[in-house]
Amino acid sequence: MTSTAVEYYLSAFTQQKGKFIAPWFSDQRRAALDSFQQNGFPALRQENWKYTDVRSITKRNFILTEKGNGSVPKNQINSIRFNELDCHELIFINGHFSSKNSRIGNLPDGVILESLVIACDIHPDMLQKHLGNNANYTIGAFTALNTAFLHDGAMVYIPDDTVLEKPICIFYLSTETKHSFITHPRNLLILGRNAQATVIESYTGIENADYFTNSVTEAVIRAGAKLEHYKIQQESEQSYHIGNFMAQQEKDSRLESHSVSLGGKLVRNDITSNLAQPGASVTLNGLYMARHRQHVDNHTLINHLEPHTKSEEYYRGVLDDHARGVFNGKVIVHENAQKTDAQQSNANLLLSDNAEADTKPELEIYADDVKCSHGATVGQLDKQMLFYLRSRAIEEDKARSLLTYAFAEDVINRIKFVPIRKRLEDLVIGRLPDAALIREFAA
Amino acid sequence: MLEIKNLYVRVEGKEILRGLDLKVNAGEVHAIMGPNGSGKSTLANVLAGRSDYEITNGSITYQEKDLTEMSPEIRACEGIFLAFQYPVEIPGVNNIYMLKAALNAIRTYQGKSKLDAIEFLNLVREKLKLVRMKEDLLNRSVNEGFSGGEKKRNEIFQMAVLEPRLAILDETDSGLDIDALKIVAEGVNSLRSRDRAIILVTHYQRLLNYIVPDQVHVLSEGRIVKSGHRELALKLEEKGYEWVKQEADAA
């Protein structure tokens, strides 16, 4: 069965061949496709995919979309925007850049912010130098497919010593179309020495839209640079989302990643940070909320490769109905990485007897002078807290919503950037019953 | 106002209350005393509606209604308030918003209009003075990081704002220094009125120096074994609980 699925993508590749951008990239495409052909799709027996069955994806024949497929009303575009946020904005509709809806705005000298398709024309050298360097397609089928079918996405380049004041928002909107479709968004983020930028990746699907987003983002964070990265996943509940974020971090660089996963039928978020030089640090915060029959899997990998590197990880999950949440946080402290400081925590709240959480912290330590800790919990709402609130005239359902929100908010509160925190607060509240009451509390 | 008849309550399979009778009229203050493990806190929690406390026999009538049929939130709306012995910390739930939600839920239930933000703030300021509580505690999460005394004061503050008909104070005096104890007592005394009743659950007589009860009951092994007036409390302090138990066993 898997082989049929593999063949489907191989033949789609052959059909698409003439339309690919960036001829200089064709060797990489081919190599990625070969790797995919050789390894096929992941199976449950593979440790990394133990809890997530991708057969619901592989048995489907998603088609590649053409540009301009489906028109999108203005109010739908506006609804995905961050209203009060003054930002540089790229909007992609069903995988294709929409220049008429995007608002890139004025950029400091040397900063590049373009769609990949356009960047291919105007910055081919830059793209050729960096594209694909940090997204290793041999690690898995989905990254390989993304590389083979690479088409559009965002290119961000911040030169040395440049601080980009306004955040960059990259919106991927998927709409209802006649045929269920696949997109392979590809983002390339390069921050020069001592550069700073905030990048928001947002994936949204129109209700009932049936599609598969297979995204890859590769980031290079040079010495002393700082990247604040947000991923907001609100795909439609019929959709599939597999996203891979890989960051290469140089000396004294900093990555702060906030991942909020709310939508999708089957979701897998992978984050890898390579702390490749001394003094590099990373913070990974994440919140996943799933209900009905949603399945959301978060896999993170932090490689401490050199001394004095630091990582902090804080993930929380809220699982209701028949939903299932997976967290796997792997931290590898390599032999050379003395004085590593690595902290990790994952907490899961089960709101229903049928919900499930699988959590697995993994620490592999090959150095001897390190400070590492991890903890994982799976629990229900605290009975004493519930009784306290109810004894204060707050109805049981409302008390449950309040406590659920309080649990989730603990992740959102770690976001220092106020407009994004407010927006995310609002999204999380919107997911709960008694939103009006909770809004009052959160005010 | 409240009538408990022959109440049997089981907690985690163990019978804690064993045939308890108690009648409290409007306008009265009753003190429930007794040694550790006699069932005092169980009684307080049962009245507030804790679900893991199983009533196996007897009845509780409150304002002519069957209290046991009511959820904790309905009891609160009907005017019952429990000041907890160990108020729980609730990270992420704002103290003052919880109180506002509580007050407006109760007012709505009782057919009164909700208070707007300004009316609520005025009420809060007035009651804060009463319990001499620092205003910055209001905007913290419920009880989070509060000292023991602050937690107890927060309970009394909530009680003062919610103005219950029947207030149950579960060992509110324990762990308080004398100044805090006086403040708590003032808060309780300010609430005393003809149409309210107060049940003080306490281990020590000390609180009763400041809140003079109409009746004192001694709880032992899940039953009220002796009732009397203020003097009973003083005698208990002097002689301990053993003589009451012996008297009860002899009877």
Describe this structure in words.
- The complex is a heterodimer of chains A (443) and B (251).
- Chain A has helices at residues 2-16, 26-39, 55-58, 74-80, 116-122, 124-130, 141-148, 383-390, 396-412, 418-430, 435-442, and strands at residues 63-64, 88-93, 96-97, 112-115, 154-158, 168-174, 181-183, 186-191, 196-205, 211-221, 226-234, 240-249, 254-261, 266-275, 281-290, 295-304, 310-319, 324-333, 341-350, 356-365, 371-379.
- With 443 residues, chain A is of the alpha/beta class.
- Chain A folds into 2 domains: 2-277, no CATH class; 381-443, no CATH class.
- In chain A, the strands form 2 sheets. In chain A, strands 1, 4, 5, 7, 8, 10, 12, 14, 16, 18 and 20 form an 11-stranded mixed beta sheet that branches. In chain A, strands 3-2-6-9-11-13-15-17-19-21 form a 10-stranded mixed beta sheet, with helices on one face.
- In chain A, helix 9 runs antiparallel to helix 10 and helix 9 (396-412) crosses helix 11 (435-442).
- The model of chain A has no long low-confidence stretch (mean pLDDT 94).
- With 251 residues, chain B is an alpha/beta fold.
- Chain B has one domain (2-240): Rossmann fold, CATH 3.40.50.300.
- Chain B has 8 helices and 12 strands.
- Chain B has helices spanning 40-48, 72-77, 95-109, 117-131, 148-162, 178-191, 230-239, 242-250, and strands at residues 2-11, 14-24, 29-33, 53-62, 65-66, 80-83, 90-94, 141-142, 166-170, 197-202, 215-220, 223-228.
- Chain B has a 6-stranded mixed beta sheet, with helices on both faces.
- In chain B, helix 4 (117-131) packs across helix 5 and helix 5 packs parallel to helix 6.
- Chain B is globular, with a radius of gyration of 18 Å.
- The two termini of chain B are 29 Å apart.
- At the A-B interface, helix 8, helix 9 and helix 11 of A face helix 2, strand 7, helix 3 and strand 8 of B.
